[in-house]
Amino acid sequence: MKNKSTNKLTILGAGNIGCAIAQGLKQSGLYKAEDIILTRRKLERIENLVKDGFFTESDNLKAVEQSEIILIAVEPQQIDGVLQEIAPKLIPEKHIVISVVTGVSVQQIATILGAKIDIVRAMPNTAISIRQSMTCLASSNGKSKAVEKAEAIFNTLGQAMLIDEELMGSATALAACGLAFFMRAIRAASQGGVEIGFHADKALKIAAQTAKGAASLLLENERHPEYEIDRVTTPRGVTISGLNQMEHDGFSSAMIKGIVTSAEKAAGLYKK
């Protein structure tokens, strides 16, 4: 890595979510690939990203020195060591720290970093790689410069929302884990499609596009789901009979319980 510009973004921990963010930022045009530095201990695991124009580095300190925004995307059990490692190189008037690490609060990060570094927590999901993430943000400084920069980054990668930090565990369950929950719902719908006569590939495409249409209706019309459901259901019709059968079998209850369970799990991930 030879580029010396400081107008860069470093992603510490180029795993699934870190690489997804990098790819999404490149697609958005907000950052060029050469302005993003990706760190990982075993560089061979991300060598394919070098071909895409990204810089890779195994030394976190070198990457931090050359960047303005430091995005931390390591596992919860690794973050303390990473923060202790980079703390001496962070400069308050230069650096902004954004953490996408589940369960670690702004105050816990600040306690380790020591200096008055602007810190933002972000909870995206892996749809960030195609710029369709729902990302929740939290900060102890309200609408600070760091929050504005984080919003600019994540709004190019989908939609960003500033929330109270106490809700970040809930955001993990609803937005991050939620992606998998909706994937499972789409898979179930496609399996139902196979049972009623479609080939698997066609059933999946129909189910996925229908789910996309349902989500788009809610986002664009800004109406409650029941409004759109009422437009589809008729007395003694086929839609209401299917909905009622799903509810008898616990569809809504299972989704709610899954989200609550994930939120409880997220709250206990980080152990100092």
Major sheet attributes: 8 strands, mixed
Shape field: elongated
> Quick check: average pLDDT?
91
Instruction: Give the percentage of residues in beta strands.
Output: 5-15%
- Helix run count: 11
- What order do the SSEs take from the amino end to the carboxyl end, as H and E? EHEHEHEHEHEEHEHHHHH
Total strands: the figure is 8
CATH architecture of the largest domain: 3-Layer(aba) Sandwich
Main β-sheet, spatial strand arrangement? 3-2-1-4-5-6-7-8
Helix/strand-derived category reads alpha/beta
- What's the quaternary structure here? single chain
Superfamily (CATH H level) name of the largest domain: NAD(P)-binding Rossmann-like Domain
Uncertain spans, ≥5 residues at pLDDT below 50? 1-5
CATH class of the largest domain: Alpha Beta
> C-alpha Rg, in Å?
21 Å
Helix fraction by DSSP (H/I, runs of at least 4): 40-55%
Whole-number tally of structural domains: 2
CATH topology of the largest domain: Rossmann fold
Distance between the termini: 33 Å
